[in-house]
Amino acid sequence: MEYLNVALAKGRLAKEGYKLFKKLGYECSELEEKSRKLIFTNEDKKIRFILVKASDVPIYVEKGASDLGMVGKDTIIEENRSFYEVCDLEFGECRFCVAALKGFKYEYNKKIKVATKYPNVAKNYYLSKGKQVDIIKLNGSVELAPLVGLSDVIVDIVQTGKTIKENGLEIIEDMFPISARLIVNKVSFKVKNEKIRKIIEGIETIKEASDGDNKL
Amino acid sequence: MFDLKYQIPQGVKDELPDYYSTKENIINSVKEVFKSYGYRHIATPTIEYYDVFSSINSTLIKEDIFKFIDSSGKILALRPDVTIPIARIVANNYKEKTDLKLFYISKVFRMNGDKDNLDKEFSQAGIEYFGDETRDADGEVIAVGIKALKKINSNFQIEIGNALFFKGLIDELNLDDKTIEKIRVLIENKNFVELKKFIKKLKIKNEVKKVLIELPKLYGNFTDVIKKAKTLCLNEKMKRALIDLEKVYKRLLDYGYKEYISADLGLINHLDYYTGIVFKGYINNHGRIILTGGRYDKLTKEYGKDLPATGFALNIDELIKSIGGKKDMFKSKYKIDFSILYKNKNRKNVFNIADKLRDQGFIVETKPFKKSLKEYINYADDKNVKKLLVYKEDILKLIDIKKNMSTNIKTKDLFNFIRNSKVVSVH
C-alpha cells in the first residue's frame, strides 16, 4: 500500500495537528522526540509526516508532494493555491484585523500605507472596499510599522490582542476569523479516497465529541 | 542581471532528442488509438484573431491568452485551445446534421497568470465528436480516452459527472448570479468548511441547503454516488441528469472499462460551456489532472450552426511527467545502422551506396576518412553505430562494432551480402 504524506506547518500547529492524527491512530513516536529531523514515518500505518514552513504547506499539497496538509486559513488565503479545503480543525483560532495608532481615522482622499505579512490578504480586503492602498510587505514585528511612521495601519492576525495593545495600537476593523484547516491535494483526494475519507470522518467525530464536552 | 541570450522564459522547455523520442512514440500511440475509432486528423492555425477566443463562452481564462497586434492593428492570439478553432472550422465548412469525428495533436499556449509553475506551452491531443447528441457518443468519447491512456499508463481514473445536475439545482435557488458563482466555486473546490458557513446564512429552503452541502460529497464509487444522489433530486432536470449518467456508465461497462470509472457530481466548472456529461482523468501519484472533456452542445451555435458536440483534451506533457522513471520504455534508442568512411575521390560512389541503403530502410551516415581507423571505431562505439564500412573502391571493409569482427566484401556484392546475412535495420 502507498504512503499517505502529511505536511504539517512547523510550530504550534504541527503539535496540535499531530495530536489529532494520534487520536485517529496514526501515531509516530519519532515525532514526539526532540529532534531536528523534518521527515517522520510510521511504517506500520503507512503514514509519513513532514515538517515545513507554514507558508510552504499549500504548495506542497498543490503539487502533490504531500497528500494532506494542516495549515492556518491565513496562509491559505495568502498563498491562493489550488487544493481542496475539507475540514475546519477548530484550533489555532484567531482573527484577521486592521490595527492603527490610537485615534487614527481614514482620510478619504489620501492613499493609506498598509504594513503586513499578508500582502495578498490586505490587497484584496482593500480592493473589495474600493480603497487605494500602498502595501508594505514585512516579514515580522508588523506592529512596529505605524510606531515609526512606516505605515498608517497594519493588517495582521490577532489572537488575544495583547501585542497590539502593548505597542500602543488598537484594532480598528475586524476582518474575518481564521483557524487551522485540513487541505487535500485534488488528485490524492480521489485516488487515496478511502484513507482520506476515514481521516476526515474521524476528525469530524472527534470535533463533535469535544463540542459535547464544552457544553458540559 | 541574467544574460537573456542563454535563457528560455519560465513555463516553456527545450525538447531534447531523448525527451522528444519518448514524446513522439507516445503521440503516435495515442494517434493510432484515435484513428482506430475513425477519428480524422485536423490542424488549426497557431495564430488566430483574438475575437475567436474572446467573444464566446469557453473554458478559457481570457487573461491567459498570449495577444499581439498585426500591422493593421487587429488583435491576434496564440492558439490557447484547439476546440474553439475546430468548432469555427466545422461551423464554416460543414452543414448541420453531419456526423464528424476529428482529432488533433497541437501545441497550445497559455500565460497562466503569475503561476510560474505551470507550463506556458504544452502539447494537447484531443478528439471532438460533432453531430451526435446521444449517450452513445458520450460513452465512445470517454472510451477513446481510456483506451489511449491505457497504452501509456494504466494507473488512472476517469471521473464522470453531469453539469445538468447542478444546473437543475440552480433552478431551485432563487439567488443572484454572484452568490451562485460563489457557491459553485466552493463546491468545485470541495471547500466543505466555507460552504457550510456560507450556506447557513442564505435564505433558502432547508431541503435545498441539505443538497448543496451534500453535493461536494457526491464522489467516488459510481453506483454508490448515483444511489445517494437519487435521494437528493429536487426536480426533473436533476433526475434526468442522473439517468443520462447511468446510461453513459452502462455503455462504459459494455466497453469493459468499469475499473477506470468513478463519479463526481461536483465537477461543475465552466457551466456556461458544458451542457451535459463532463469528465476528468487523473493518474495515481501525479498531482495534476491530465485529461478533461465533456459535452458542449452550444459552442457551434456561437458560429450560427447547431451541432451537438462532445470531446476531450489530453495533456501530453503532463502524461509524460506522470510516467516518471518508466519514460525509457517509450524512448527509441539512438542508433545508426551503417557509418561509411570514404576518401574524397570515391565520394560519389559512396553517396550512391548510402542512398540505396537508406532506401532499404537503414539509417546511414557518411564521413570523409581523415583520422585513424581506431578513432572511428571509438566514435562508432560511442554513438551506437552498428557497423562501420570503409570504402576501398573494389572492396568494402565491414567492421561489426558489437561483435568486434571485420570482413572484406566485394563492393558489387554488398547488397547480396546484406540480404544473405539477414542484416535488418535497427528501427
Mean pLDDT of chain B: 90
Q: Work out the largest interface and the residue count of each chain.
A: A-B, 23 and 21 residues
Weakly predicted, low-confidence segments of chain B: none
CATH structural class of the largest domain in chain B: Alpha Beta
Number of helices of chain B: 14
Helix content of chain B: 25-40%
What is the CATH architecture annotation of the largest domain in chain B? 2-Layer Sandwich
Structural topology:
The complex is a heterodimer of chains A (216) and B (427).
Chain A: E1 4-9, H1 12-23, H2 29-32, E2 39-42, E3 47-52, H3 57-62, E4 68-72, H4 73-79, E5 84-88, E6 94-101, E7 112-116, H5 119-128, E8 133-137, H6 144-147, E9 153-158, H7 162-166, E10 169-178, E11 180-184, H8 186-191, H9 193-215
Parallel strand pairs in A: 1-3, 1-4, 7-8, 7-9
Antiparallel strand pairs in A: 2-3, 4-11, 5-11, 6-9, 6-10
Chain B: H1 17-36, E1 40-41, E2 47-49, H2 50-54, E3 67-69, E4 75-78, H3 83-93, E5 100-109, E6 121-130, H4 135-152, E7 156-162, H5 163-172, H6 177-188, H7 192-200, H8 206-214, E8 219-220, H9 222-230, H10 236-255, E9 261-264, E10 277-283, E11 289-295, E12 309-315, H11 316-323, E13 336-342, H12 347-359, E14 364-368, H13 373-382, E15 385-392, E16 395-400, E17 405-410, H14 414-420
Helix pairs in contact in B: 1-4, 4-10, 5-10, 9-10
Primary descriptors:
heterodimer; A: 216 residues; alpha/beta; D-Maltodextrin-Binding Protein, domain 2; 6-stranded mixed β-sheet; 5-stranded mixed β-sheet; 36% helix; elongated; B: 427 residues; alpha+beta; BirA Bifunctional Protein, domain 2; Rossmann fold; 14 helices; 17 strands
Would you mind describing this structure in some detail?
The complex is a heterodimer of chains A (216) and B (427). By secondary structure, chain A is an alpha/beta fold. In chain A, 39% of the residues are buried. Chain A has two domains: 4-92 and 179-215, D-Maltodextrin-Binding Protein, domain 2, CATH 3.40.190.10; 94-177, Periplasmic binding protein-like II (D-Maltodextrin-Binding Protein, domain 2), CATH 3.40.190. Chain A has helices at residues 12-23, 29-32, 57-62, 73-79, 119-128, 144-147, 162-166, 186-191, 193-215; strands at residues 4-9, 39-42, 47-52, 68-72, 84-88, 94-101, 112-116, 133-137, 153-158, 169-178, 180-184. By secondary structure, chain B is an alpha+beta fold. In chain B, 38% of the residues lie in helices and 23% in strands. In chain B, strands 1-5-6-12-11-10-7-9-8 form a nine-stranded mixed β-sheet. Chain A binds chain B through residues 2, 62-65, 82-88, 181, 184-191, 193, 197, and chain B through 117, 157, 159, 189-194, 219-220, 262, 264, 282-289.
